[in-house]
## 1
Amino acid sequence: MPDELKNHPKLSGTWVLLPHHTGEFPTPAELKDQLRASNIKTVTMYPKDHMYNLYEWVCGDLFDMLEECNIPLFINHDQIINYKDLHEVLNCHPKLRIILTDLHYNTGRNLYPLLDKFNNLFIETIGFKVHGGIEDVCRKFGTGRLVFGTCAPVYSGGAAVAMITYAQISDDEKCMIASGNLERLLKEVRL
């Protein structure tokens, strides 16, 4: 476990991953051992910023390991080159749990077909600022597809809390989004 987290048992770190082919990063098997040793249960990737693609021949081995271990992959919407790439990843790795973060209000036209087809795709709530969007996703795809997020420390948490508090959904659904869905995903990690 990283030193920064040793005195905070309720916190879990998230590591940024890269493909291993150039030797800058451990192989997926080595990474799995390191994630286990450090009690890391979530990861993220920045393919656009770090200049690589999510293609199967670039990241497939890494996605296989994450899928096998049920490790959620948080990925910023702006880091995905295009929705075709995301479709390919979801199609090739039907058990890889991808949580899209920092969505925009206009993503629904491309996002909804993916949510309809892939049960392993989730939405972090803070960027999805669509009027009635939380309610619409709950109704069409199920409350279990939403994970609460604040984008802190960049943004204040007030807007994120208000989006869930004032959503026209049941209190049980609000609790699932606020904490239950992420807690469930973390409990299902197998390292």
## 2
Amino acid sequence: MLERKDFTTDFEALVNRAFADFPFFPEFTRPGYATPAFDVYEKDGKYVLDVAVPGYESKDVNVEVNGSTVTVSGWHKETDDKKSARFHRREFRTGSFTRSVTLPQDLDPDKVDAQLKKGVLTITLTPYKPIAPKKIAIKGE
């Protein structure tokens, strides 16, 4: 009987080696190096962003508001006890990230609340104009 080999790990290693020297696609170089995931939604007349930043402390993350664009950036450094370690596999993220999202309305930069709990950064943003549905009259024959 033939033994089946799992080629997933070999293929993943081949792809990682192929993209390792391309600075143009840093999110594809190694597992765990992608930018943080965002959830963007409206709640109670405000915009809310949930950003996945596990392992980050509040001092390592920045939030900037410019018009209708919110930029989240951060830096996650390697701990001293790992600097001299010989890794067999490495997926924990180190280094920096920057991610922006543009919302449909300009935001009031003085009414922004950001809280980091259990690896999720929740940013609550107030638009200058209230978010409210508007009924549109339909013209017809």
